[in-house]
Write a structure and sequence with these properties.
Two copies of one chain form a homodimer. The first copy, chain A, is mainly α. The first copy, chain A, has two domains: 165 residues, Ribonuclease III domain (Ribonuclease iii, N-terminal Endonuclease Domain, Chain A); 65 residues, Double Stranded RNA Binding Domain. Chain A contains eleven helices and three strands, in the order ααααααααααβββα. The longest helix of chain A has 23 residues. At the A-B interface, helix 3, helix 4 and helix 8 of A face helix 3, helix 4, helix 8 and strand 3 of B.
Chain lengths: 240, 240
């Protein structure tokens, strides 16, 4: 008894520490703690199950990714009632980008909880974002959509995501294209090739021309926007 | 009075017809009918709003797409508790493919409700799938995640989607791998490297070997499936 007791105690206190940490992060007491343990099990450290499959957080990550996508889609839909679908999609992809999720994972301290090898921490840069998505998957399975939604919005977005800053950092394709052209020693011009009067104004048609060849075209009422669209198209064509 | 009355009546009866049709499709009475009207408004037929934006179903489609993704991710996660994330992702993309959604939209009769031009019906093949997603967006906004989930699973998946058939149409990774090997002039073999008797049968462990090097491994009770899993892994490793 005196031999067994310290071991039990250490297991219990480890579990208690984990429960404590999780509760701090998610803001409520989990029902099924095993789900949360799994969320932090990177495949490099996962044991092999009987059927050859490794029990890691990959399935939870797949699920959490979808739930996060839905919650953020809803949030942006309501926050920007007059913006079009293209803008909403672009904003969403910025919020859920691997890079951004990695940062969020650090901000809420998930890096302390992930079980993996040191080698992997160096090699695998998306480790933290993956665990963050897996945590969302675990919350969803444990408590349902509404609780997962509340966690994402109240705990994460409201505390750690500056949506206005993300909006204004809207990719600047024109400067990207110009930088590239300078580096590659190519000429780049934006040319107004047409104006179409409509009921409300004049639609401008602008070409992005690289070394004399048209690489993109944009139309908009604003010159700046039409150039952006043309530059975006050119970046796509040129694989920049 | 005698002039106004017939007009009012015709508007009312049109709305009543629409309400009736929607109720038949979704299985409950909508709270906010305007959302459902919008769901069937294709951009070609949408009026321009004051701020220049057209009020069409595109925003609802963006939202519905995300909700559908989450619901299907959850469904597959629970239906296939032992399958890996790659399989779940592949199955999900089959269920939510534009082609499949178009077919589902027809099956539940959405084609009768869409407002667009004849020209567009011919030109735009994803019209029906788009409206289907927009309908899911409308249900979600009107009644929340759980009702949208019930609609998708009980009304759509259970009645109109044969998941087993979709599964067996699983991409054939073995032939993909063999084709690649022929093109790249590499040898490819599948080798049985172990048999593990379990309570219910024998688990076969099969390796996919490319130019003498193991590139993937699969385990299953069926030789064919084990080979598929091994080939799938090899395709991943080799970036095919």
């Amino acid at each position: 008894m005196s031999l067994v007791f310290p071991i039990l105690k250490s297991v219990f206190s480890k579990d208690k520490d984990f429960l404590h940490a999780i509760r701090n992060i998610i803001g409520f007491t989990p029902r099924n703690l095993a789900l949360y343990h799994l969320a932090f099990k990177h495949k490099a450290s996962a044991e092999e199950a009987k059927n050859g499959a490794k029990k890691s957080n990959e399935r939870l990550e797949y699920l959490g990714d979808a739930i996060l996508g839905a919650v953020v889609a809803d949030l942006l839909f309501k926050r920007f009632p007059y913006r079009e679908e293209g803008f909403l999609t672009e904003m969403r992809s910025r919020i859920v980008s691997r890079d951004h999720l990695n940062k969020l994972a650090f901000k809420i301290g998930l890096n302390e909880l992930i079980q993996t090898t040191t080698e992997n921490i160096i090699k695998n840069k998306s480790l933290y974002g993956d665990a963050f998505e897996a945590l969302i998957g675990a919350i969803y399975l444990d408590k349902g959509y509404n609780v997962a939604q509340r966690f994402i919005i109240n705990r994460i977005i409201n505390n750690h995501v500056d949506i206005d800053a993300l909006e204004s950092s809207e990719s600047n394709f024109k400067s990207k294209l110009i930088e590239w052209a300078q580096k590659e020693k190519k000429s780049i011009t934006f040319e107004l090739v047409g104006e179409e009067p409509t009921g409300t104004g004049k639609l401008l048609r602008i070409k992005a021309v690289v070394n004399g060849v048209q690489m993109g075209e944009g139309m908009d009422y604003s010159k700046k926007k039409a150039e952006q669209i043309a530059a975006e198209q050119a970046c796509k064509t040129l694989n920049i």
